[in-house]
Amino acid sequence: MTKLILDPIDGTRGLMYDKRSAWALAGLAPHRGAQTSLQDIQVAVMTELPTARQTEADQLSAIRGGGVRGRRPPRPSKAKDFSHGFASFAKFFPQGKAMIAAIEEDFWAGLYGLDPGASPLIFDDQYLSTGGQLYELATGRDRFVADIRPLVFEKIGLKVSLTCHPYDICTAVVLTELGGIVETPEGRPVDAPLDTVHPVSWIGFANEDLAQLARPALQRALKKHL
User: Fold this and answer.
1) Total-model pTM
2) Are 5 and 166 in contact (CB under 8 A)?
3) What are the CA-CA distances from residue 120 to residues 80, 143, 215 (Å)?
4) Nearest-angstrom CA–CA distance, 26 and 68
5) d(CA 177, CA 24)
6) β-pair type (181-183, 122-123)
7) What is the per-residue pLDDT for 159?
């Protein structure tokens, strides 16, 4: 017996306004009853739902331990640092944005400093879709994505449902099968019951070199604010 989790349209608002593709996400896991979790997912598929002006759409699928297939071969960035690359913290809505931005600023300051007169080293391009964020990491466009909204909302006592949930992150195996990293802010494997309600915090890296570089600075920034 298997359990299927679906997000038929991840990125509804971006697609609704014809700004950016949404994604149909699916993850399949052996059914272990209430114990079935994200780490049980063995097969994942993500299909692009393109904007009106697009003439092509992409699709990626992965089998845990069996690699990734795509209409175009996905290749995460091999960069060893974040300089002149795209990296972002998810802060789509007003709630909690100030604290997330403070953590983000301290994180980058810990890695590179924040010389106000220097040219920007890091570029922020938020994709309002967890599937889209994973796709950007998997295809070499982004080097780092952090979604710590559940931690921040808990800290400020905010009860908000608009966070990442298991159905949003169910295709993480696509990135990990390519050598990318998906982990908790504490550096552990991302896991949660395979349901539609649990909030999920996660950090994504294009490769292990970037993860090793970022972890100490990230931990310091999180400890300072959370």
Assistant:
1) 0.96
2) yes
3) 18, 16, 21
4) 14
5) 19
6) unpaired
7) 85
